[in-house]
Amino acid sequence: MAPVDPLQGKELLKGNVAIAEAAIRAGLQAYFGYPITPQTELLEHMSLRMPQLGRTFLQAESEVAAINMVYGAACAGVRVMTSSSGPGISLMQEGLSYIACSEVPVVIVDIMRGGPGLGNIQPTQADYNQLTKSAGHGDFHSIVLAPSSVQEAIDFTVLAFDLAEKYRTIVFVAGDGMIGQMMEPARLPPMQKVRTTRPDWALTGAKGREKNIITSLYLGGEVLESVNQRLQAKINRIRAEEVRYEEMLTDDADILVVAFGTTGRIAKTAIREARRQGVRVGLLRPITLFPFPFAPLDELSKRVKAILVVEMSAGQMVEDVRLGVWGRVPVHFYGRTGGVVPLPGEILDQILALAGRLDEPPSGELREFVGMSVSVS
Amino acid sequence: MQEEMIFSGFGGQGALFAGMVLAYAGMDSGKNVTWIPSYGPEMRGGTAHTTVIISDEEIGSPIVQRPSAALVLNNPSMEKYEPLVKEGGVLVYNSSLISITPRRTDIRYVPVPASDVANELGNVKMANMVALGALVTATGVLSLEAVIQALRDHLPESKHEMLEPNVQALRRGAELAEPVVA
After folding, report:
1. d(CA A175, CA A299)
2. Do A207 and A98 fall within a single domain?
3. Residue A178's closest chain B neighbor by CA?
4. CA distance A187 to A55
5. Is A338 near chain B, with CB under 8 Å?
6. Fewest beta carbons less than 10 Å away: which of A180, A260, B83, B172?
């Protein structure tokens, strides 16, 4: 059904389509990709719209090819992106590492699916470590933005291009099958003009100027160390300047839930219900998974009595949370894996258990996860 | 107000589309809405469902354990969702195809011969709209007119020859649900 303009420019949009259209409106000049569920509608939308607009769309023969095409286009100074899901992101890691070292701006969308391996096509957040720690060999971090709604998926896609160019870095938009497949009313940004100039560092044919060199090969130890120092200085600037997060009901909270993306919004439902039952619980929702919001977590960990981390993984972000609270308070974990999405009732039971409101530990499906609880005290 | 609904049927029966029409109507009425399809390695003839939430508040979880209403178009969907509807909730079912006898006493059943009515109106594919008309009336989640308007506003031009028959299907479904509401 064709979206119309009924209310303040809102349209009912599927996450994948919304991300694609947002990127196009942000002035995307080239898209290279390879289909994989649950992000295929993104590539499909690109395949329709990019040629219509006279821009470049290319379905590569594999993700390895796609990321190297992205690398090439980025070196030429055009706005470029690709999108995939876990298995495809893994294939891209060599190219991502080259891109990180070459310091060219690239936007990558990862609509995460159940793993490891080929796994399944249901939502997960188990690419957290892969995206935030180092999406490839060597020392680097990418900026990772985690939307929890279709509107945020749009806004963060636009932001991703600006950040990628500001820092000449990789920026991931990290969604999951739920964000990709869900439809919600959302507002698209206005169409930006495609940039006609190219940055002065880009490879544009060195007529009448010194040649630019973009490479990730530095054979001397000292010269490569100086490259690393430059990269780390940039990453530290990102750590200092680009942290984004949302806090909800944390002012008087005894219990703090930390969750991002899809899990973050599901946790909101559980938190509101727990509040109705008189439990003082709040939410810290990291929006940048890298740089991780250590500063607000540090502050909150001085005030709350317990922390509950909820993820669609066996526990990845929980390691950053434990690192960030300096052992001040117990950090508990609840996760679902394999593409299973936690329901609000499951998270509510965990909150009530922490608040001492349950006579018995959470039962049923939850029991198998008791072994995954981690406490630091 | 928050209504959490499941729409389910065989692939091709239009359960996902019915949910989408309601989602559009919710959005156009200024509500918050989410629409999430079941997706996966599906096969022709398999069962497909969607979860639609319409709310005055910000929607947290877009998935639900216990829907407040369900619209089911075939036996497998009835099997799956009848036990899950919240106490006091509504279950609209396609009595043309569903042979299962209702088993609960704590929910409101709205049997609608959706496939037969759609056939009478000229196309069995409109069974989804008959059932949607009944669901809207039985739950009161939105007005029937808002749903009809959403169909008018969002159905692509290329399908407009099907518009009036579908509007009729919605109205017939709504009439059929009225005795249950009264």
Report:
1. 27
2. yes
3. B36
4. 23
5. no
6. B83
What lies within 8 Å, CB to CB, of B27 at 6+ separation is A6, A7, A10, A12, A185, B33
CA distance B97 to chain A (A): 28
A224 touches chain B (CB under 8 A): no
Of B30, B35, B40, the CB nearest to A182: B35
Domain assignment present for A4: no
Q: Domain total for chain B? A: 1
**Does a structural domain hold residue A298?**
yes
Q: What is the pLDDT along chain A (377 residues), one digit of tens a residue?
A: 555 554 668 999 999 999 999 999 999 999 999 999 999 999 999 999 999 999 999 999 999 999 999 999 999 999 999 999 999 999 999 999 999 999 999 999 999 999 999 999 999 999 999 999 989 999 999 999 999 999 999 999 999 999 999 999 999 999 999 999 999 999 999 999 999 999 999 999 999 999 999 999 999 999 999 999 999 999 999 999 999 999 999 999 999 999 999 999 999 999 999 999 999 999 999 999 999 999 999 999 999 999 999 999 999 999 999 999 999 999 999 999 999 999 999 999 999 999 987 766 664 333 333 333 433 33
The residue whose two tokens read 């029937």 is: B144
User: A1, A111, A176: best mutation site toward chain B, by most B Cβ within 10 Å?
Assistant: A1
Residue A185 contacts B where some CB pair is shorter than 8 Å: yes
Encoded amino acid at B84, one letter: L
> What ipTM did this prediction achieve?
0.94
